[in-house]
Design brief:
Elements (H helix, E strand, L loop, with lengths): L2 H21 L4 H19 L3 H25 L12 E3 L2 E3 L1 H19 L7 H15 L4 H17 L4 H19 L8 H12 L11 H13 L20 H34 L3 H24 L18 H22 L5
Antiparallel strand pairs: 1-2
Helix pairs in contact: 1-2, 1-10, 2-12, 3-4, 3-5, 4-5, 4-6, 4-11, 4-12, 5-6, 5-7, 6-11, 9-10, 10-11, 10-12, 11-12
């Protein structure tokens, strides 16, 4: 495994335990144990060869798509929520849409490594379009759009021509719209998020309603100052342990804590891109896709916490409380470690 990547994982995971302890003091030990399990998962994936990972991807895609369909039939939703995104497996809730992110990375890495120069484009069209469309039906528009962003990043990393890139993207978007589009009209939360964002930066007439979460997040970060108010203080922000965990870290450690978060993610992505540039074969695309996943999702979450974009419900990699996102991002980081191992065996200077 790459020592630098591992160190950055430990740093971000430690901030996740701190943020979770600030938001939900009784869950700190649970989060620490989950992070330890996630590190073991990263280690397991890192031991695989990139060629083995992409060989497993088609079967993984079929299984994950079946689980997404199962969510529509027997999935559960939290109290008061319109969205059914989880399967209940014994005492554990499982969110297949998180797993689909890494499956799409692995599938497209294998496809574009093997078929970059020909026009067998119907496969990525269907893979991306079906996955995004079924996720929209849950509904989870932010994850569906993020799947498109991941696919776009991998195609760019593979050197796909502009014509192929646009044809695949547009065709996949049509498939996703046909599959999931009719379900969007029945959910009101999408419009509420746009309204809340407008109110936060407008007249602030509904800070107890649609813009409550964003307004409370901004107030907490303003109060924290440079060094924060220390851990152990209540975080008066909804979802402070999950989607808004960056606010919990910021309240505890102030601007210094937020800059540490940003720097940690920036260094991790920079290291991943260095590995992708040095690797050959599918490992290069696996590492590039993993960078797009970790860096893109971190950027979205931190922009939401800062009130710069509407609330998306996207968790912060390694840091947000919960098992599903942590396991998914640990698999993605395992892709980087696997590419690092192979690049080192090929004589790359890393």
């Amino acid at each position: 495994m790459d020592p630098l990547l591992l160190t950055l994982q430990l740093l971000l995971g430690g901030l996740g335990v701190l943020g979770g302890a600030a938001a939900e003091p009784g869950e700190a030990v649970t989060q620490a144990l989950r992070f330890a399990a996630a590190l073991l998962l990263t280690l397991g994936v890192a031991r695989l060869r990139p060629s083995a990972i992409v060989r497993l991807a088609p079967a993984g895609y079929a299984l994950t798509l079946a689980l997404l369909v199962a969510v529509l039939l027997v999935g559960i939703a939290p109290d008061g929520s319109e969205a059914r995104r989880w399967l209940l497996v014994g005492p554990v809730t499982f969110q297949p849409s998180e797993l689909m992110k890494v499956v799409v990375i692995a599938y497209l890495a294998g496809f574009f490594h093997n078929h970059l120069g020909n026009w067998q484009v119907w496969r990525p069209m269907v893979v991306i379009g079906l996955a995004a469309g079924v996720v929209v039906m849950q509904p989870d528009v932010s994850t569906a759009l993020f799947l498109f962003a991941l696919a776009f990043a991998i195609m760019l990393a593979a050197g796909t021509s502009l014509t192929r890139l646009l044809s695949i993207s547009l065709s996949a978007a049509i498939i996703a719209t046909v599959v999931g589009g009719p379900y969007l009209a029945q959910y009101s939360y999408l419009a509420d998020r746009i309204t809340g964002f407008s109110d936060l930066w407008g007249d602030q007439v509904d800070v107890q309603g649609t813009s409550f979460q964003a307004a409370r997040a901004r107030a907490a970060l303003t109060r924290a100052g440079l060094l924060g108010i220390g851990p152990g203080r209540p975080v008066n922000v909804p979802e402070a342990a999950t989607d808004m965990v960056a606010v919990a870290v910021g309240q505890s450690l102030g601007l210094v804590g937020m800059l540490t978060l940003v720097t940690g993610f920036a260094l991790l992505v920079a290291r991943g891109l260095r590995i992708a540039a040095a690797a050959r074969g599918p490992g290069a695309l696996l590492a590039a896709g993993a960078c797009a996943y970790v860096g893109g999702q971190a950027a979205l979450n931190l922009l939401v916490a800062a009130g710069l974009i509407p609330v998306t419900g996207v968790p912060l990699p390694f840091v947000s409380y919960g098992l599903n996102s942590l396991m998914s991002v640990s698999i993605a980081t395992g892709f980087m470690h696997a590419a690092f191992r192979e690049a080192r065996t090929q004589g790359a200077d890393l």
